[in-house]
Amino acid sequence: MIETRQLTKRYGGFTAVDAISFKVEPGQVLGFLGPNGAGKSTTMKMLAGFLSPTAGSATVAGFDIESQALEAKRALGYLPEGAPSYGEMNVREFLAFIADVRGLAGETRYRRSDDVIDRLHLGPVLEQPIDTLSKGFKRRVGLAGAILHDPRVLILDEPTDGLDPNQKQEVRTLINSMARDKTIIISTHLLEEVHAVCRRAIIIAAGRILADATPAELEARSRYHQAVSLTAKDVQEARAALARVPDIAAVEVDPQDNRITAFPKPGRSIFMAVSEALKAQNVNVRELALEAGRLDEVFRTITQGATGMEART
Amino acid sequence: MSGTTTIFKRELRSYFVTPVAYVFIVIFLLLSGAFTFYLGNFYERGQADLQPFFNFHPWLYLFLVPAVSMRLWAEERKSGTIELLLTLPVSMWQAVLGKFLAAWTFIAIALVLTFPIWLTVNYLGSPDNGVILASYIGSLLMAGAFLAIGSCLSAATRNQVVAFILTVVVCFVLLLAGFPMVLDFFHAFAPQGVVDAVAGLSFLTHFASITKGVIDLRDLIYFGLMILAWLYATAIVIDMKKAA
Question: Is ipTM beyond 0.90?
Answer without folding.
Answer: no
